[in-house]
Design a protein that fits this description.
Length: 359
Amino acid sequence: MKISILGAGNAGCAVAADLTLKGHEVTLIKTSHAMHDDNFEYLQSHNREMTLNEFGTILSAHIYKTTRELSELSSSEIIIIYIQTNFHEQLIKKIVPYLVDDQILLINPGYLSTAYVLKYCLDKNIIIAEAESSFIDGRIMKPGFFQVGFRNVRNPIGIYPSARKDEAIKKLDQLDERFVYLDSVVEAALHNPNLIVHTVGSVMSIPRIEKSHGDFCIYHEAYTRDNPCTWKILEALDSEKMNVLEKLGFERLSYVHACKLRNSFDDDMDAKEVFLDYASMETRAKGPTKVDSRYISEDVPQGLVMLEALGRSLEVATPICTALIDIASVALGRSMRVEGRTPERLGKENIEKILNDCC
């Protein structure tokens, strides 16, 4: 299958290599010069070779093509967006001329970017999919070399429009990424784990992040069995998320149970213990290494601001969400709400289309 991946960062490169090893023709497209240029230049000068080290199993893949040309999108059956969600709207506007009917646009993670696609791609008869989190977790350790930290055992995704769900499943299952299919992209957006775990852990750890000068691991320090107070904050925020989901007509599903679905086949194991075991893995990468990092500058405006705005429109109180946004805004010295996702920015009419599609 012909696949294009937009974004040549950690996740984009890892999934490009993984799908190549599975026999697909993958084109990896670098969308900016912001990060990982050294790795991309290495790929271009070393026969597009990307090596995955997965717990001692080392496999190298020669990706079919590496480029910066968006025109390559037109020949793809599936396009995967793997860039920071802050830049989704800007990228979607750019790729509109190269999209063709019946393609699948898979956004990972989504944070309800389906609304941006509906906003700018009105004349495109495409299928949109949103995933909750990256299929493979890890880091580019040096140019051309990716250290796998974790691989989801299941990958929940939503499909829009629902009328084309069966068609989408038939194609997406060929990727062999252990997909499970949700009722709506809304569920995928609000079950993005970073909405909960990145925001609470990083905002409440700001002094430690500053003091550590790069020697901080959010999972090893903010989320251990010795952090009951941090966990109370996480559960309070998670409750607000579930209140919004319930008001929208979806099932209440906690962060830990969504985590268990993605990360464990052991149905008998306690959901919180699944997360704590995941958090304590030795392969967890350090981060955030500074306060103004994606853990806050992406997941607060793109996640929490969206949650707060949805709550306000539904008359659902979100005081913990609001407090975390306020603290992050003061710490970074700029308004997270100005940068964030709101019904106005996403388009209220687009949100209505998404909600009506699944109800």
